[in-house]
Amino acid sequence: MGGNPLRSYGRGVAWVALALLLALLVAAPLRAADRARLEAFLEVTGFGVALDSIALSASGAPEMLGLSASDFGQGWSTLAEEVFDTGRMREMGLSILEQALDDEMLGHAAEFYASDLGQRLVAVENAAHLHEDDDAKRAEGEALLAAMPQERVEVLRAMNAAVDSAGTGVRAVQEIQVRFLLAASYAGVLESEIDEGMLRALLAEGEDELRESLRASALASAAYTYQSLPIEDLRAYVAALEHPTMARVYELMNAVQYEIMANRFEVLAARMRGLTPAQEL
Hints:
Low-confidence stretches: 1-29, 277-281
Shape: globular
Distance between the termini: 65 Å
Order of helices and strands: HHHHHHHHHHHHHHH
Largest sheet: none
């Protein structure tokens, strides 16, 4: 049969590497979480790329202050890259997982994501995570949804519900906003200090609107991300995500992502003061 022998060789190497990662993950018990096994976990599940993609969220920081990146001058890009350093964020993620990820969770997730289906999912998820133009991605996702059979739409909805089975997304986004805005206020980035109680009350008023916005955004993102996969694969993914152990894994991974994002936004706010005069919120 035809085909590029170099590409075939590359696929063989990739599967050998994957087999070694899986062997490392399941070979030994997780005591105080072996760092090498956790690093393998980041790779086989794609969670490492998900952590790296947090850096792309830095572009939203000025908007939360009613400003744009250009308001912070030429130093903005350098500052954002320093604060959202991917190596630092992976280290933070590993430190949290080291304390919270147990044997059952690690083994269960690793076994699924090392499967043929799991690796197809990781491939498309990694590609979507690293796509920098969120507006273009959402527009394409919405266009796909408009022409999509309702049956597939419902499977994507079920998938998104399973990814955040604890329903923490809205509260997490609110907490990130609170921590960032308070840090910006304390650092003098804003002209006047923010009252935390008033800020939380204001965010609570918009909670329903935020929930719908996040739901619509997640659905468009799923339509874009999984467009190349058949509905049978998506149904199998939903079943895997709904397993109680996988639900625990995702609850932890979501918490890790949210904590790292909130922490980095706090650090960013503290360092933004040197880039611009005080601004009103």
